[in-house]
Amino acid sequence: MFNGFSHSVMGASHEKRGIVCQDSSAYEVGNGYAAVVVADGHGSKKHFRSNVGSKAATEAALETIAKFYADPDAFDEHFRTDHKRIIRNIEKQVISLWNEKVLDHLDKNPVTPEELNKFSYEEFDEIPPESYYGTTLIAAVAGRGYTFGFQIGDGSLVAVFEDGETSMIMDYEESNPANITSSMCNANAASMFDQFYVDNKRLLAICVSTDGLYTSFGSDYDFLDYHTIIASQLTNLEGFMPSLKNNLVKRSHFGTEDDISVACVFDVDLARDNLDIIKAKVVENKRLAAERKARLLGR
């Protein structure tokens, strides 16, 4: 049985500048699967509706995944033998649905004079309408005995295994080769996704987050340890969420001041049965962190 959570907070820089939160996050527990998604709307001038674009991205991802899982038994049968092709098909359909959503929004909500005043006529004419809504997207799906995901743009995806070990399955900037900005609004967006597939691994949890979370930590060690701490609290999700939300607000204000989104789904039984193991791993991680700090100060 799966459960999950998602939450987004506004960064201090956006509050100071009077900008809306451009992140979106969501999760869904369906029949035979659980999915998490986060999206980070671009902050540059031409992406002036990126908050709408990020929400459309999370919706498009969850709706597409649900459609593929309409018959979960059939999906599982075909997916295990041809997962790369099926994930690519999901990515293409997510892009297609996202474009439908943002262009429908534009049709119902034409560009306002206030939005237009930020550009010269020449500048505005060169911007494709989809770019108004530019955003990243990360999605992960926990199935029955396997996990897969896909990513366009920056952000992070962390797997937490039943022994408390953690792994960034896709490197932080892997989907941005050669400093090329990958975005849902790119004309060749469907070819810019990275994907992963893990079979026969008993994952306790899978977490996705926008770059505001990763960049609020001093090292990959600290970032991964944070996810082990999250895993140690999943058996008391209702009691844990207020402290998690407060922590994300602090990180969004005293870290990079960026918006932060995190979403997580987890195996309820594994979280319960391995709680002592996870808590022991948290203690071990604190010891190792102290040793790293001591070595650094001793240099």
Structure explained in plain terms:
By secondary structure, this protein is an alpha+beta fold. The protein has a single domain, classed as Phosphatase 2c, domain 1, CATH 3.60.40. Helix content is 44%, strand content 22%. It has eleven helices and ten strands. The strands form two sheets. It has a five-stranded antiparallel sheet with strand order 1-10-9-6-7. Helix 2 (50-68) packs across helix 4. The longest helix has 26 residues, at 83-108. The radius of gyration is 20 Å and the shape is globular. The relative contact order is 0.18. The model is unreliable at 172-179 (pLDDT under 50).
Task: Describe the structure in brief.
The protein has helices at 12-17, 50-68, 72-79, 83-108, 113-116, 121-125, 211-214, 220-232, 237-254, 268-273, 275-298; strands spanning 2-9, 23-29, 34-40, 137-142, 146-152, 156-161, 166-170, 194-199, 203-209, 260-267.
Task: Label this structure with key terms.
299 residues; alpha+beta; Phosphatase 2c, domain 1; five-stranded antiparallel β-sheet; 11 helices; 10 strands
